[in-house]
Amino acid sequence: MLELCGVSKRYGDVVALQPTTRQLSPGRTYVLLGTSGCGKSTLLKISLGLIKPDTGTVQFEGQTLSPDNVLQIRQKIGYVIQSGGLFPHLTARQNVTLMAEFLNWSTVDIRQRVEQLTSLTRLPTSVLGRYPSQLSGGQQQRVALIRALMLDPDWLLLDEPLGALDPIIRNDLQNELKEIFQSLGKSVVLVTHDLQEASFLGDEIMLLSDGKILQTGSMQQLIDQPVDPFVTRFIQAQRGPQTQHGRGAESGPQGSRAT
Amino acid sequence: MTRLIGITVVLLIIGFVPLSVRTKQIRIGSKKFTESVVLGEMIRLLCEDVGVEATHYRELGGTKLVYQALLQGDIDLYPEYTGTIAEEIFSGQEFSNMTELRAALNKQGVEISATIGFNNTYALAMLKPRAAELGISKISDLSRFPDLAFGFSNEFLDRKDGWKNLPKYYDLPQRTVTGLDHDVAYRQLRDGKIDLIDAYSTDAKIEDYDLTILEDDRGYFPRYDAVILYRSDLPARTPELVASVLRLEDLIRADQMTVMNKRVEIDQISEGRAATEFLRDQIDVDREVIDSTRSQRIAARSIEHLDLVRRSLIPAILIAIPLGIVAAKRPRTGQIILGVTGIVQTIPSLALLVMLMPLIAWLGLRSVGLGSTTAVAALLLYSLLPIVRNTHSGLNGIAPQYHESALAIGLPSMVRLLRIELPLASPSILAGIKTAAVLNIGFATLGALIGAGGYGQPIITGIRLNKMYLILEGAIPAALLALLVQLGFDLFEKWFVPRGLRIKATP
Q1: H or E segment at B331?
Q2: Interface predicted TM-score of the whole assembly (ipTM), two decimals
């Protein structure tokens, strides 16, 4: 259980996040959806203790996040950012095994875990010896995902993980992510600005605007019962006028590939 | 990680293992002009004559510096002038006789010899034939020739004991007085454009230009009698040495000193040879003087120079990187650290050396002379800024996404620093060290200002003797060394900077 209790954040006069209280249950995939600057990344980073909220607390499995336990808690949460955030001076393998080595895993355990995850993410093992700058964008994100999954965390937080990829690779990876989320049964919080991605991957979508969660629910609920005109505007803007009637809200990349 | 530890160990060994510097029993100092160096050599030869090994730290610097070295025991004795003692050491105090001067010095633990014979003071000089033609031999004779043209150095024109009070004192009628550069004055005198110049009474050019010194018959100029200052504890340590050196008392006439100065400056023989020529002729002390060859000199200077560089640069690296880390981690402390290291950089080198000397002496370390800690400390301070600044900017320049990733994985701060932040900042840190090393090699030449040795030594001697080849003998190796070090760093960079930061992205 990941609980946000009245967390808020402002930078000077700019409110990044209004006081927010939410409970995120294990085993589900949550999507934080919204335009840039709406506070979705801030919310994610507060959950991980990367940003200290001005008010409120974060509870992770009953523990209140504090400087004393933040390092332990982070080891139970995998985190992937848009550009991958792979350390450029380490090879893909070193990036992936850094934390396990620090925790004194045996070489055998490390090797087995890496093999497991490379096959799960369909990353050719031959690229593990390369440096991030020698990898393609899709490979980088796969390595970042392996790094996040290395310690087998219960939670996975992803901040626009596919945002920097071209459409075809993006499409492939969306499918893979969905498979991985389903097969591993992880609790996932994913940040995106992309409506299709949100509806394809998310069990529950939280639509944010101006630092506030406007509405929570499935895509269908957002379309059928918008609580705020902004919700409709946001959805319409993303679907575009020509596709307004052509595609169902549930259609994801697989659907669009079929048409 | 193991590589980092390895490098640190190597640095510690290179930086702190003392080079066995042969320190001989007795240390002689001299100031930065030919006469002082010749007298220093003479003292050295007289030490050797009674079987005492002595080192001559030549061209240590100006009066204050050399006297301080004497007080601190960095040197045991050096040649000095009575007028200088009163004027510069006792800041203008008047001493009516030698006994008073001796008493004042004794209080500081310093002993003074009787005069070694000549008085090197300001003097007025004319071409010998011209003086003979007019029948001038004393300054008072000048009052009979109101039309003579005088050319004086600007310093002489301004000094209270120079031209300012001279006309009044001697009732001189001459009013055609030109302020000239010393070298120009000599040339104009030779060409007959002026009749009289100021000079030092033992100036080598007096012999070279065939000048005559006018007798100061009414005793206007203060006396600068050459003497030897030595530490009061020296007679107890080596009585035979003091006895031997004091053979110089009343031994050298001004014209003889002038000849020795001329032998060095005009005939270009070594100071040691000039000194031994004189001693052989006068008191039958014939010590063999071996002049070192150029390659021997360059080799010796190179070792001294590298010694200064390694002893300053390596501690600087070990201090500056942690300082840079602190500066990056704590911005407010960082402002102070960057500010202070920046200010140090602006202190003129000579001022820094003089400021550091008492501190180094107080710490019980050698403050002047070959490889002195003062020079090392000054170089260390100068080397801090580039390294601190580049460490600071290297760490601050790390893209936020890497900080975020390192935090999000759950790495503790020390591991983040060692495994992520320092490797990412390493190209910048290394560039800072490279800058510091190249600057250090240049700055180290200034160590010669306090006799620290190195490539600065031939440069200073070259400037003193106006010998370009000597200046180049220091300047060229210094420049080559800087280039070599730069090249070395470029190669080291290839090996040290993480490969992932060097390779270009493949399409």
Answers
A1: helix B331-346
A2: 0.84
